[in-house]
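Appendix B, example 12.
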Amino acid sequence: MRTLCGVAIDSRTPVIIGAAQVSQRPPVDDTLRNAPDPIDLMTDAVRDAATDSAGDGVIEAIDAIAVIGGLWRYRNPGALVADELGIEGAATILTTFGGDLPIRTAHLMAERIASGEIDVAVITGGECTLTRRNLAKRGETPRRREEPRADQVENWGPPLDMGDLIAVDRGGETPRNSYAMLDSAIRASRGESIDAARDRAANLWAGYAVVAADNPHAADRRGLTAEQIRNPSPRNRMVSWPYTKAMCANNTVDQAGALIICSSETADRLGVPVERRVYPHHCITSTDTTSLLEREQIHTAIGLRAAATRVIDVVGSAAAIDHIDLYSCFPAIVTLTVEALGLDPGRQLTVNGGLAFAGAPLNFAAGQGLITMVATLREHPGSTGVVQGNGGHATKHAFGIYSTNPPHEPHHIDDLGPIGPVTAIADADCSGLAILDGVTVEYGRDGPTRAIAIARFDDGSRGWTVGDEPELMRTFVEEEAVGRQVMVDAGVMTLPQRE
């Protein structure tokens, strides 16, 4: 039994041995149709991760490939990656959707390695969304591979429910709207002015932009300032008040990443140097309500808070987190997580650059964060890193804890399950006076198009409501509207007449 840092390492202790990202800027000429596809990029990422491990025979030793769900509609993409790598007999897994899945899946594979079910696992994800968009401009579609083993796959992961038809119709299903409404509720609960809340979000994002500027795979390396992020411009239009385009997740990328995890005895057999090894210590997961309408208070996520509290219990204190990568689809989730973990919002909150600037394949941002965290921990041996995943409307939470030091206890997953009381959802046609619990204004390219809000009725139930009166939209962007009374008529809101 190997001993490291005074800790005896069991032969089945899982360890990350390889990690890599790949990216491409697709061509703009006639070769675009034959540009590498997501399977190519994921395959390249696995090869690079194997090289990154500095071990021998790593590719040949892979016996499980888990792919994080994406937009490509392949039923068994892991088998296609295995074929490209020349691997026979590897088990394949395809996950559901959600930004929490890379962390959950990495630790699922770690659990299976610890139990002896598998020895060497790959977690990968990738997209060529930028290529697909460029093809669409030419009226073309991406090439699609045949799948001879489409049904020979394990489908795994918690479901992702983004909202019912009413939420879709009234804008509550769209993340840029739901997170903007969540941000408005945070603002109101803190007593912040609209300008102060916008400054808070922009300052957080400026910290991500600085890190992305040094990331060679980042989609946006301009290193935008807080002012450039906060204020609309020809390249940075308003999207969902108060969020500009620069504050929103960017999945329009050609990127992929891969991690390789194995047992410690296999790492020894493959000759992986000790300094290349990063140990997954602990994973904490939890779930808030699917819809913001159901939360007791819109400005909090009780499940997130519970998971964050457990993270601090495990590491000892916020100060003990040396490196962190907070999930950053929109500023609201970062604000909530910083508060829940007790972090200084002025510290570096990402190692990869975040979804707005580094960009990421759909559902794989936390995977990119973990890949960069592996490199960061290798550069700072003995330090502790935490990576967060988040899915839905601040609904599905996952935190992973990592170090080059081996764990004192066996790898463990704490699933805290669904947390928090549930508030009733109002009937779609519910009408009457209501109080606004969260607000935003949705913008098109030519300006504001409609106001969207969470309305709470006298019986405590909530519903999505919309309105397109200019005065209503002006009020939402210039005055504090959370806590204000509106008249709702079958989902359409108007301001009561001022006397």
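The chain has a mean pLDDT of 95. The longest strand covers residues 432-444.
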